[in-house]
Design brief:
Elements (H helix, E strand, L loop, with lengths): L5 H9 L5 E3 L2 E7 L3 H18 L4 E5 L2 E6 L9 H15 L1
Antiparallel strand pairs: 1-2, 2-4, 3-4
Helix pairs in contact: 2-3
């Protein structure tokens, strides 16, 4: 899967609420209702990522979960990252 150039990333990010470009990854911070819910969300994210053959960077700080996506095997951001980001967004709103 080819990496996206900066213009393609910016265009894709325009349609993704709360996601931004940071350090060559797309990043979003989610605020959960509690630590317990944050951990549950991380588990859901892990299941989605595993099914997609993807490995996001995940940081948990009490009730805040930060997800950073880039396709490490391709050395940059690909459509695979945006597809997983959409799935993660949907999981968080459930």
């Amino acid at each position: 899967m080819p990496t996206m150039n900066r213009q393609e990333v910016d265009t894709a990010l325009a349609g993704m609420a709360d996601w931004s470009l940071e350090n060559d990854q797309i990043v979003r911070r989610y605020k959960a209702a509690s630590f317990h819910r944050a951990i549950g969300f991380v588990v859901q994210t892990g299941i989605l990522a595993d099914k997609a053959g993807h490995h996001p960077d995940i940081d948990i700080r009490y009730d805040t979960v930060t997800i950073a996506l880039a396709t490490h095997s391709e050395g940059g951001i690909t459509e695979k990252d945006f597809a997983l980001a959409r799935q993660i967004d949907a999981a968080f709103t459930e």
